[in-house]
Amino acid sequence: MALTLASRFKTLIDLCQTRSGQTALIGVRDSLSYAGLGRRTQAIYHALSTAPQGMVLIHGHKEMDVVPAMMAATFAGRGFVFADISYPAGRVAQIIQTCNCGVVLRTDPKALQTDLFTIDTGRLSDRILEDLRLDPKDEEALFYVTFTSGSTGVPKGIPTTRASYAALSDWFEPENTGSAGGTDAHVSHASMAFDMSMSDIWTALFAGRSLYLLDHTNTLSPRANIHQLLSHPKAPAGTLTATPAFFALMLEDPKFNAQTLPRLRAFWIGGEAVQRSLLLRLRDRFPGCEIHHAYGPSECACITHSHILSDAALAGTGPLPLGPEQSGCRVLVDTGKGFALTGQGEIVLVGPQVGTCYWPLDHPNNANFGMVQGMRSYRTGDHGEVDETGSLKIHGRIDNQVKVNGFRIELGEIERSAVQVDGIRQAVALQADESSPTRGLILVLNGDGLDQGADKIGHVRDHLRATLPPFMMPAKIVIAPDLPMSHSGKIDRRAMKERFGTA
User: Fold this and answer.
1) What is the extent of the structural domain holding 494?
2) Which PANTHER family does the UniProt record give (predicted)?
3) Are 186 and 209 in contact (CB under 8 A)?
4) CA–CA gap between residue 102 and residue 119 (Å, rounded)
5) What's the predicted TM-score (pTM) here?
6) How far does CA 492 lie from the centroid of its chain?
7) Does residue 322 belong to any structural domain of this protein?
8) Interhelix angle for 5-18 vs 34-48, to 10°?
9) How many domains does the chain have?
10) Per the domain annotation, does 141 fall within a domain?
11) pLDDT band per the 50, 70, 90 thresholds, residue 485
């Protein structure tokens, strides 16, 4: 029988009382026991009781108070949304407006000051954990909102209900905890604003495991991450969920291996296209490890597919298999002639994990949500195929959305920001080719006064930093006197990719 999120949070509160000495969260500089997790949750919950109504914005990075703040907001019956301290003020303001936030929980004193009612969690004293419970009748209540890049130039919010997340937990928690490393600590590298962190955090804590929260100040330092993973010998790392880009970073350090981390035995990898060469390097460093190929959009609580890759799959060619749909999920293929269970076309996901809409409600992409055979459905925009065994493979996108380091990015949002700079007539954002020495995104500019070269590029880069989060910043900006056009008079993106994508 499926468990509600209310029952899972009851289990977590019980763990805060019965496993008081066990480590729950492990950061770079400090850690928090399950008892401490309960006391911090109670302190923030008490502070919220006097705050104005509305959603809770949690503003910080990966401080020990971030998870208690999320728990406190949930027990207070408020949905939460997280904004990282790296976000520019304009981005934070858009999130506040879209979610109609009523209160800010600042877990980092460096977080931006806003006009909203603000609670600095670091100033709150611990309180004795009382009987915090969720009402099981409120499973359709909002759990959290994540934000992704918007094709309209404005980021769009993706609300996830308690019921949608509970549907994910029903199959993903036992898979993760039942894996080769599932009795040990889990490792979370994702930003707290990224949906991958939501599947990491609660999957581990509901099961009473320890959780490593890798700090993004060490993004370019695999040795620092390894040092953190060795900081608590009584909580050895057993499982890790990450993007291909993060695994590539870690594999640059020869100490990322089974000799250094002998209990690290199971990996979940997804969020963007995965190269076999990367997985073979991972298997070489961790012989016999489980490599789970994962897939799923934020609109469906992050993960809908998780498939252990065999040696044959790693030695094969073409898109890597994602296996069949998991419990409660269904995959349909829009072949252009209607929905089918097999074949090639746009992938449509159906079932209890599927969300209902984007925020704001008038966002044009809300047309991607619907109902199929009495169940919620979502058009993913992914072009893929389902074979006769029910196994899914993804071939690419049918639109201008790309993934960089696991983050979904609408190229149009970058372009719309760039053309706000005086003198820029056209801007085209591209994802660099895999063979390019420039990783990530390339922005090509055309307009007046661009003979100023570096000065103009610097001005554009400063404007982008003030309007976009760091993960959307182009790795390279180039100036072009003309942009190739198609016969229909539109920018020829294929020609642009050939000319600039490998620059």
Assistant:
1) 404-500
2) FATTY ACID SYNTHASE, NONRIBOSOMAL PEPTIDE SYNTHETASE
3) yes
4) 11
5) 0.85
6) 31
7) no
8) 120
9) 3
10) yes
11) low
